[in-house]
Amino acid sequence: MVMLEVKEFGKRFTSHHLNTTRKAVEGISFSLEQGGFIGIVGKSGSGKSTILKSIYRTYLPDEGEIWFDSERFGRINLLKAEERQVIWLRKHEIGYVSQFLNVMPRTTARELVEQALLGMGESPEAATIKAEQSLRHFDLDERLWDTFPNTFSGGEKLRLNIAIATVKKPRLLLLDEPTASLDYQSKLKVREVIEKLKADGTTLVGIFHDLEFMEGLCDCVYDMNEKALRGMPEVQR
Ligand SMILES: Nc1ncnc2c1ncn2[C@@H]1O[C@H](COP(=O)(O)OP(=O)(O)OP(=O)(O)O)[C@@H](O)[C@H]1O
């Protein structure tokens, strides 16, 4: 079953102070089966993040179509989805993880994961149990659960970020260079997390600068330069 289908997608940005409009991305087409993992590769500024942010509707795309197989709304074009539908999809079906943790200040790690579950309609009791399971699953040290994440290390922030995004078991998870600021050991942890998600049947689209990191994880890559899908390239060692 096709989970995500991007057709002739394009996005322009307008600079109001310069009174100019510039095409950042155009002619992007690919599709992704349920449980698949596409890595997007291409040079800096080629528009990789713009694609992910448009799927998540942080950006409102202005060309083409992005079809998503939603449990709630059926096949839905994310470019045309209403604001209330987008909010629902973000709460329940589409997760987004970057290297940055953008969360409510003065809220503990445990509360952040619980809030994601309460937003989905879980009872407070179930939210407490599932939040703890998720924090444990992603190896966040128990001593950190009731503290504020602003002092967490890069790896700890990322694991919390992934716990928040995945606790709702999204059908589609978008990974926007989550490992960019991590050391090798922390990257290995993220790899394990992604392998677990894949094993659970989550569909993934990810951007990673490091091709070696993607090897064996992605089923194929979308190359922004060639504007085509292809198998994983051999990594030069
Ligand atoms: N909000 C925005 N307003 C104006 N221009 C933007 C905006 N977001 C992205 N751009 C421009 O769109 C182009 C694509 O940016 P994008 O961040 O998608 O590239 P990228 O391939 O992810 O780059 P990198 O690998 O360096 O992160 C760039 O030229 C960027 O300057």
UniProtKB/TrEMBL annotation:
GO molecular function, one term: lyase activity
Name of this protein: Phosphonate C-P lyase system protein PhnL
UniProt cross-references to PANTHER family, sorted A to Z: ALPHA-D-RIBOSE 1-METHYLPHOSPHONATE 5-TRIPHOSPHATE SYNTHASE SUBUNIT PHNL (PTHR42798:SF7), LIPOPROTEIN-RELEASING SYSTEM ATP-BINDING PROTEIN LOLD (PTHR42798)
Signal sequence extent: none
SUPFAM superfamilies: P-loop containing nucleoside triphosphate hydrolases (SSF52540)
Keywords, in A-Z order: ATP-binding, Lyase, Nucleotide-binding
Entry coiled-coil feature ranges: none
Pfam families (UniProt xref): ABC_tran (PF00005)
Family: Belongs to the ABC transporter superfamily.
Superkingdom per UniProt: Bacteria
Organism: Bhargavaea changchunensis
Keyword ATP-binding assigned: yes
Keyword Nucleotide-binding: yes
Boundaries of every ABC transporter domain copy: 4-235
